[in-house]
Amino acid sequence: MLNAAGEPQNIVVLGGSSDIGVAIARRLTAPSTTSIVLACRRPQDAPIDGLRRPGLIVDAVPFDAVRVDQHAAFVDSLATSLGDIDVVVLAFGQLGEQSHFDDDPVAAADLVAVNFAGAVSVLLAVARVMRRQGHGRIVVLSSVAGERVRPANMVYGSTKAGLDGFAQALGDSLVSSGVSVLVVRPGFVHSAMTQGMEAAPFATTPDAVADATAKALRAGRRIVWVPGVLRYVFMVLRHLPAPLWRRLPLG
Amino acid sequence: MSPDYASEVLRGWGRSTMSSAHVATVSDRDLIDHVKVADERGVLVRGLGRSYGDAAQNGGGRVLRLASSSSDVRLDESAGTVTAGAGVSLDDLLRVIVPRGFFVPVTPGTRFVTVGGAVAADIHGKNHHLEGSFGNHVRRFSLVLADGSVLECSRKQNPDAFWTTIGGMGLTGVIRDATFGLIGIETSRCRVDTVRCDDFDELIEHMSTGDDDVRYSVAWVDLLSSGSHFGRGVLWRGDHARRDDLPVADRANALEYRPRQVLSVPPVIPGSGVVNALSSAVFNEAWFRKEPRRREGSIKSIPAYFHPLDAVGSWNRLHGRHGFVQYQFVVPFGRESELRRIVEVIVASRLATPLVVLKRFGAGNDAPLSFPMPGWTLTVDLPAGADTLASLTRTLDEIVLEAGGRHYLAKDALLGPAALRAGYPRLAEWQNVRRRLDPQQTFRSDLARRLGLLE
């Protein structure tokens, strides 16, 4: 159970090796938190040591976004071991290389399978368990890349567009179930995923995303932009005429 | 889920905790059938939802409201006792018994609590220092157990179940009806003496010396003042007025009782609420100034003296969207320096705290989870939206527990399992009896999940 200050007893990160996911888990950890589960494809790589402290059990467990046939059983097993699940952070996702996809449509489909199909499948499994327990918070890492998809990363961007739309509607479907969904839309984040890339304007960090996420959760918001100014930037960008949009030097 | 149940988001009175449950209102006749249904999220009875935290929530499970009517009240005037259905509110009860010359043995600051809730939370009132908590006055009750059997409980009959259920937060079974002693009254008014104290030490001194001569005693502390006015307060002491205390014109209708709600808070309040540092400071200054330095024998009605906030419907919405936490603890006598330190920490936090109540408790009772113990209890409203809330209350928790004190479960929304265990050393004893009464964990609540009560 979350307490009145919104502090969780347990946190599950799907995509447990994600810098942003781990930063959010660290930021949400309170003295009353007893369990963190980092779920990812290679549990041995999950940064559990950075989260450890007395009284807190940090586990890394195998989870594969593309094995959608296992998702329901996986979430059920979490509920069995944790009891009620307080917070789930969906943080997995791959960026890919658009130039590579142009020659390899199968690789593009694989990325869609992870970023979108895998996310939809596991989110539905999580929603089912949380609806049954009558409470819970789901945090979904979307991206401004999905707000208006750019040709330069059209596969990644469109998976985030799909995920963003799905997560918002999932939140609507859970109204009055005691469960809520927070969609987080960061801009460019300095992290392992973006290493070596040139930062876009308004670039941010995993810790800043975590701070904004924690604040938005406490405030009961449904969407949060990080940094907040991107909301207004994209309000404009979304409505730019296509010829102008295509010419923008957005990388 | 049977068609009797509807999904509903339930919150505590502080509006800072929530979960969704399957809710049904059930009659006494159908109660046993509803209890016997076994499902994995369990069942809980909810009264009028006045617990401030998650005590009357059962996320994903079933929550029963007990249908009640004033015909569920059976007054035995010669014995001075009443037997009432668990779903009967003190409000209903007072409307029946006051005109006939009786008052409830214990009333909290609101009359909108049920008899079942009064037993389950072992509520206390302004007379605790002399007359103890609600459980002290309960003669017997019947308890519907998880298997559908009905257990008659009193000090002689099933005393384990009796004391485990008192203060047991609804986790032992469903209280069906209860019989308890009443206070005989000559009038429906109270005679109240007021003393204004200019600082904390004066207040403590006043309360320590004079409380044992008066039935009702409670003080309001202004936590927004610092410096030489630190901890200033107003002490109200009173008792039920006798016929002779009333003006001659009022004596004919000495037992007239007409509680009224004078206004109600609209359902929509600006996001952050209207209780903030400025409004609280203004309110506190006005309230402090309106009291004379000393006034004796003023006559007040029962609602005005005992239940002033009930005059404003849904006053809990004033704290806005994030709601609030009512932090209440007790520290033993002899720990006045810790009490003072706690007040200092709250003052330094600068969180809006318009309503701070200080009271001296008398002896506790035999219930392992009963809150009161001899000492000082302080109650303060804190905004749940404040970023510093959790760190503030953790600091306070440490001082409280270090001093050998504890927290009131009917108010709590923030504690963890460790703090609960530190404050309630008889928890294991309570758990053993509870396990015997309900081995399948049929009765559950969000509070129990948060604090690990059923483990």
Structural class of the secondary structure composition of chain B? alpha+beta
Multimer state:
heterodimer
Number of E-state strands of chain A: 7
| Order of secondary-structure elements of chain A | EHEEHEHHEHEHEHH
CATH architecture of chain A: 3-Layer(aba) Sandwich
Q: What is the CATH top level name of chain A?
A: Alpha Beta
Which terms would index this structure?
heterodimer, A: 251 residues, alpha/beta, Rossmann fold, seven-stranded parallel β-sheet, 42% helix, B: 455 residues, alpha+beta, Uridine Diphospho-n-acetylenolpyruvylglucosamine Reductase, domain 3, Vanillyl-alcohol Oxidase, Chain A, domain 3, 2 domains, eight-stranded antiparallel β-sheet, five-stranded antiparallel β-sheet, 26% helix, 26% strand, globular
Short description:
Chain A is an alpha/beta fold and 251 residues long. Chain A has helices at 19-28, 71-82, 98-103, 105-133, 154-173, 206-219, 230-237, 242-247; strands at 10-14, 35-40, 57-62, 87-90, 136-141, 179-186, 223-226. Chain A has a 7-stranded parallel beta sheet with strand order 3-2-1-4-5-6-7, with helices on both faces.
What would your notes on this structure say?
The complex is a heterodimer of chains A (251) and B (455). Chain A is α/β, with parallel strands linked by helices and 251 residues long. Helix content of chain A is 42%, strand content 16%. Chain A has one domain: 3-Layer(aba) Sandwich (Rossmann fold). Chain A has a 7-stranded parallel sheet with strand order 3-2-1-4-5-6-7, with helices on both faces. In chain A, strand 1 (10-14), helix 1 (19-28) and strand 2 (35-40) form a beta-alpha-beta unit. In chain A, helix 1 (19-28) packs across helix 6 and helix 4 packs parallel to helix 5. Chain A is globular and about 55 Å long. The model of chain A has no long low-confidence stretch (mean pLDDT 95). With 455 residues, chain B is an alpha+beta fold. Chain B folds into 2 domains: 80-185, 2-Layer Sandwich (Uridine Diphospho-n-acetylenolpyruvylglucosamine Reductase, domain 3); 189-261 and 272-417, Vanillyl-alcohol Oxidase, Chain A, domain 3 (3-Layer(aba) Sandwich). In chain B, 26% of the residues lie in helices and 26% in strands. Chain B contains 14 helices and 21 strands. In chain B, strands 16-12-14-13-19-20-18-21 form an 8-stranded antiparallel sheet. Chain B has a 5-stranded antiparallel sheet with strand order 5-6-10-8-9. The A-B interface holds A 1-5, 7, 9, 30-32, 83-84, 131-135, 176-179, 218-220 and B 7-9, 12, 14, 16-21, 41, 53-54, 58-61, 321-323, 325, 384-385, 387, 389-390, 393-394, 413-416, 446, 449-450.
